[in-house]
Amino acid sequence: MARRIYLLMMLGLFTICGLLLVQVLGQSGASVIDMEDAPRGIEPQMMAGAVEAASPIRVAVAMDKSEFQYWVEVNDRIGEEYPDLQVTMTNFNEDEANDAWVKSSQIGEAFDIILLDNHLVREFAVQGYLLPADDIYARDSLEDQLKALTDPLRWNGSIWGIPADSDPMIIAWSRELLRDTLQEPPATWESFIDLVNELRLSNPSLKGVNVLPNDAKQMTGWLGSFKGSIEAAANLSNFNDAMKHQIQYTLTEASTLDPENQMYELIREVKNGNIFSVVMPWSQYKRISREEPHLLSVGFATAPIAWNGGRSFVVTSESSQLQRARQWINMMTSSSRQMERYTEIGKLPARNSVYAKQYASEPIVSRPPNWMVEPLQKPVYIPDPRWSERWNSWVNLWHSPKLALTELEQAEYIIREWNGAGGK
Question: Keywords for this entry (predicted)?
């Protein structure tokens, strides 16, 4: 009798252990938290059901929902291949992400990994929120990184991040209008105005540029599109004379269709010869090129880029998952992953070797163009440990209630406000 009771007890114990094992194995891969639309003041929490003993790597990002879904799918595939690499990904609203990440570091609840805007890396490093990333680079992989994307990551003899990708703000030109004038894309503000005036002889309603004044990144890219202004725009310095004229022109003459939300209307206006150039991120240019491969051209860019949209993975100083964090970052920044990201979401690779020369003649919808390597090898941004403070001032400038004034009054206000107080 006692033996029978003993056997029943052992059978019950094995059953319970088996159920627990199934639950643990079912937790590999990613837990997903999307904070993009969460109310202000809500702190992200780990998903219920995460296995505490597994110590999942906590990764913070800030991106739109469609891109976040792509990252989650990639991470799920990694989780299937490496079940011990449990990852919790949290997506923040882009406007609030920086403050939330700083706060989490200050109270000792930092994430293990953050996908951080390159401009912010030195600021986080100086504050002691990050660990150096020198050891994450394998062999000569640092030499394979594009210099404009690694220079902002350097401080105090170390490098503090691993570049993931970039989405530079570019100016794309109507191929047909350039062909009509037998001109190359203008390199200076003066030549731009001359070319627009020439085109207006046959179409007085022509808009020289499509740009959104309330988009601080677009305005940075647009003001840094011409020789003599690139470095000033990249570093949010005081406006020079050409930039002042550009601002006045933008607020009085520019078309303001949103390339993302009004893409087909924008395409129609360019096809009808009513818009000469469009300021937009590279990923949006790639989407338009998929729809209309011969509509727009950026030429063969050689000048530096004022806003390269670089992002890098950083490891926080609070992380206790250093080895596994390094493993995950190396997987997410491999050449094959970067090429896949370009195909799926249009972000340009951070590795030189991905821009293989044999693909130079292929359409940009299938391969990143080799000629983009040159501008991405030319850093113009000077790392600044107080970048977020100045960037917030820059964003607020283009959202000021004063912009309800007449166009010329708006331009005067912006120039006076920035050169008098905000610029460096």
Answer: Signal, Transport
